[in-house]
Amino acid sequence: MSKRDYYEVLGISKGATAEEIKKGYRKKAKELHPDRNADNPDAESQFKEANEAYDVLKDPEKKAAYDRYGHAAFDGGMGGHPGAGGGYRGGNGDFASAFSDVFDDLFGDFMGGRGGGGRPRAQRGNDLRYNLGISLEEAYTGSQKTIRVPTAVACGSCEGTGAEGGSEPVTCPTCSGMGKVRAQQGFFTVERTCPTCNGNGQIIKNPCKVCHGAGRVEKEKSLSANIPAGVETGTRIRLAGEGEAGMRGGPTGDLYIFIEVAEHQLFQRDGATLFCRVPVSMVDAALGGDVEVPTIDGGRSRVRIPEGSQSGRQMRLRGKGMPALRGGGQGDMLIELQVETPVKLTARQKELLAEFQEESAENNPNTSRFFSAVKGFWDSMKG
Known about the structure:
Blueprint lengths: L5 H5 L7 H15 L10 H15 L2 H10 L11 E2 L5 E2 L5 H17 L16 E7 L1 H6 L1 E12 L15 E2 L8 E6 L2 E6 L8 E2 L12 E12 L8 E4 L15 E7 L6 E3 L2 E9 H6 L1 E6 L5 E6 L8 E4 L15 E8 L6 H13 L5 H18 L1
Parallel strand pairs: 3-11, 13-17
Antiparallel strand pairs: 1-2, 4-9, 5-8, 6-7, 10-11, 12-13, 14-15, 16-17
Helix pairs in contact: 2-3, 3-5
């Protein structure tokens, strides 16, 4: 049976770039992997076919030979070296080993790559989170807060190296400084964190007696945080370099302060808008009047209540709300009237209200409209 064209196997065009060849192989490898195709008896052979195609096309020299001579350029299928006749000669090779090479080529950048050791990149310290509660007044004006944060700082005794007396860490003999070890499992070469150095690539033969080789110690830091005006619950403030110290001289993480603004007894907030519910007497709502209301800056504003006001009526005080967090002016405050029904009436007060009720039947338009609609509804149900 003749072999299929390698470009057709990977589902790519003949002029495909190296990146397109890699993407085509990744797609086919996921589709055809035997573990995902237990009910397909041809999956393994198709998977090997895709692997063979990629092994050739990923290599510029092999690809050039294939583009010129096709499958005739290769006597042994996968792998090999240039032969005397201008083609490529070589054995069929072990499939697992071949796939291991392909796996390294695809994912080497993420798994640390191939090759020798060298000093590994320093391990960055963890970021920290601090929940800070403030009042609405502090959110309005902004404030300076001093916070105490338990964290890990660089060890002063060994200057963060983790080694005693200025000695230097040595390359880990197990992983040769890579921080990872490899093991062959079927088709795959699996990389794991080195158990000897825990991924650091180095070991300390003479650890610091203060930090026990970690290069950092636990300590509580006192920090000053600037809380800008306009913050609200959920606002996040980043303090760069104020997180945990890195392991063995690695860079320091960051501290993130999450703001939580406490509920206020007078004001409710929606972004830059403040709401204040103000109770007014039934008489003031009917006849109109003035009411003095507080503002978040500690001041007072006099508001005129229109004659015949109902509960829920709102009046706007411009510029009396919260400041925008990153500029953009000041929000407004909305005054919402709540008409209060009197309680614990005297006999005389009840008598006066009863007389008022008799004289004001035509002064309640909403009541008249409602009960007129109710009568029409009942009449329609009878019909």
